[in-house]
Amino acid sequence: MGRARPGHRGGARPAAAPAGSGVHPELMVLAVSCGSIAFSHVNDPGFWMFKEYFNLSVIDAIKARTTYTTTLAVLGLGGVLAVEWVLDTLSV
What we know:
Elements: H1 25-36, H2 45-53, H3 58-89
Helix pairs in contact: 1-3
Region (Disordered): 1-21
GO molecular function, one term: gluconate transmembrane transporter activity
InterPro entries: Glcn_transporter (IPR003474)
């Protein structure tokens, strides 16, 4: 077994904004969540449910679902940016 490096606790470390950076961690979570729904493709079980429910071909389902999930992601990101602007204006 190797020796631990001084000051290294091991394990995964969460990505976080440095203290005093002015970044709200809650808004970071919301922004990442908005980005995660864009471009929903065939590896998503919801894609197959959508395809079967509306009786679409795979290509048509990709076109329709990608369009609305990407629109939803962009609108969500716009909402996150608006909330950030409000919080910055209020100096919260």
